[in-house]
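CHAIN AND CONFORMATION:

***
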Amino acid sequence: MKKEVALRALEPEDVDILYKWENDMALWIYSETLKPFSKQQLKQYIQGINLDIYQSKELKLLIESEGEQPSPIGIIDLFDFDPYHNRAGVGIMVHKKYEGYGYASAALDLFIDYCFNTLGIQQLYCSILVNNQKSIHLFEKKGFELTGIRKKWRKVGREYVDEGFYQLLNLR
């Protein structure tokens, strides 16, 4: 069953949920995060992220369930935006209690459409640890193709894990 979601800009009121999610150390293995964020840092980040994408080179949107009482269920972001080559990285996080219900899939559909048809991006890419089967399945289902493997690229605990590099070209 496809879930209905909306993507929206971060608001100052989102600092508490962002604080909770960004400081969840269990999620740090999927990002480049190595230290916690303060609420003040996140308030400043929210102000900066809402600048023009050509200035900030990134875009972070809150994923909300649609309905009478929308609730935040995750974050989707565009990073390393390169306007010359028209490419950017994409990352997504759906809170654990909302996994498996189609929210990530619906949010990624909206985001890809926005990136390709509104921003005019030529390609999106992402990096996924080879043991993260949920993310691999999600991105491959959306047409992302594995174009390379970075051997022992990410340190997870005391081990190094391979990371897949995936690309989606705008062929529309």
Remarks:
- The first strand starts at residue 5 and ends at 9.
- The mean pLDDT is 89.
- Residues 5-122 form a domain with the Aminopeptidase fold (CATH 3.40.630.30).
- The chain has five helices and seven strands.
